[in-house]
Amino acid sequence: MLKKTLCALALAALALPLTAEAQDPNRVNPVDNRLSSFFASPFLAAFDPAPQRPRPPIYSYPIEPPPGMCRWERQILDRHGRPVLDPNGRPMREYTIGPCWRPPY
C-alpha cells in the first residue's frame, strides 16, 4: 500500500508542471519538465520491479530429462499449504526438469 501511495505521489509531482503549462499556453519553460524528470527518476527506479526469470514448464506426469539435467518433483499444495489429493486420496505431484545443483522453482 505504501509503495502504491509513493508511486502515485511521484507521478502527481510529474504532472504538476504539465498542468501549469496547459493553463498558460504563452509561457514556455522547458526547465520545469527537465527538473521534474530528474527528481522523479529515483522514485521510478525504486519502484520498478526486478526482471523475473522464466519458470520451467511444469508437467503432471513423470518425464525423462535430457542428459545433464535432472527431474524434480513436488507435491501440489492449495492456498492453505495442504496437499491437493487425487480422486484415490493420494497427494498430487508436479514434475519439471532443471539443473541438478539447484531446484528450478
Q: Overview of this structure, please?
A:
The protein is of the alpha+beta class and 105 residues long. 37% of the residues lie in helices and 11% in strands. It has helices at residues 2-23, 30-46, and strands at residues 70-75, 93-98. A two-stranded antiparallel ribbon has the order 1-2. The longest helix has 22 residues, at 2-23. The mean pLDDT is 76.
Which labels suit this protein?
11% strand, 105 residues, alpha+beta, two-stranded antiparallel ribbon
Quick description:
With 105 residues, this protein is of the alpha+beta class. It is 37% helix and 11% strand.
Q: Topology of this protein?
A:
Layout: H1 2-23, H2 30-46, E1 70-75, E2 93-98
Antiparallel strand pairs: 1-2
Helix pairs in contact: 1-2
User: How many β-strand runs?
Assistant: 2
**Tally of helical segments:** 2
Structural class: alpha+beta
Q: Which segments are poorly predicted (pLDDT under 50) over 5 or more consecutive residues? A: none
Order of helices and strands: HHEE
Order the strands across the largest sheet as they lie in space.
1-2
Shape: elongated
Kindly estimate the percentage of residues that lie in beta strands according to DSSP. 5-15%
Cα distance, first to last residue?
27 Å
The Cα radius of gyration reads: 26 Å
Strand count, sense and barrel status of the largest sheet are:
2 strands, antiparallel
Integer average pLDDT? 76
The percentage helix is 25-40%
